[in-house]
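Explain this fold:

***
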Amino acid sequence: MAVGDVTMPLMHVVQGVKIGSTEAYVRYPNRRDLVIFEFAEGSNVAGVFTQSAFAAAPVLLSKKHLAENTTRYLIINTGNANAATGTVGYKNAETTCAKLAQLAGVQANQILPFSTGVIGEQLPIERLVQGIQPALNDLNADRWAEAASGIMTTDTTPKGASEQFELDGVTYTMTGISKGAGMIRPNMATMLSFVATDAPISKVLVQQLLQTTVEHSFNRITIDGDTSTNDSCIFVATGLAGGAEIESQDDP
């Protein structure tokens, strides 16, 4: 059960980020379970993933795509982790990316897939794929709170944070959501987190900042001593707030 203040804060819009969600009936009816993030062209995206030797299909494919191309979309389903699903599970993750790529007009390797939920069952790929267009139709800059609910599994409350600050007349925003309720252990666990800023941070620095921050936050959390197969944390910098590109941690 959640403790402390579990109220969702005001989730500030991040320039260059749109989010859509829908009810795809991945596992349960009448609940949001498919979420899509769209990033503006030129966004720099970083990722940190589970260190489990049994990483799930979407983790393997996301790591591959992140290394190959610039990321434009994330697609997240809850209700089914697509873990311990073998070659069929990997193919289903590829099919998910291929369908979104077709509908969005991008390359398949510009999409990172994520799944969370029951382990050892194949994705209901037909229902999932049918939900992609409705989620795209819902794309909007102010859908952070809906996305926080749409990625939950056994969580009892959605989780989000958002901050804004001004420097030299420019307002910068950082907003993020997470899910995770069990199997959380150092080195990340059954947890997904998606964080975005409109600050102009270089590609190398976004990865450095994410890695450093995860080491001092998510990698220190333990709940039940178990490590999961699907842990993923993504950080994107769209750069649309303007200003010179930030390339060093010494930058003011």
Remarks:
- The chain has a mean pLDDT of 91.
- Strands lie at 17-22, 34-39, 44-49, 73-80, 111-118, 159-167, 170-179, 192-197, 232-237.
- The helical segments are 57-68, 86-104, 125-130, 132-137, 144-150, 203-215.
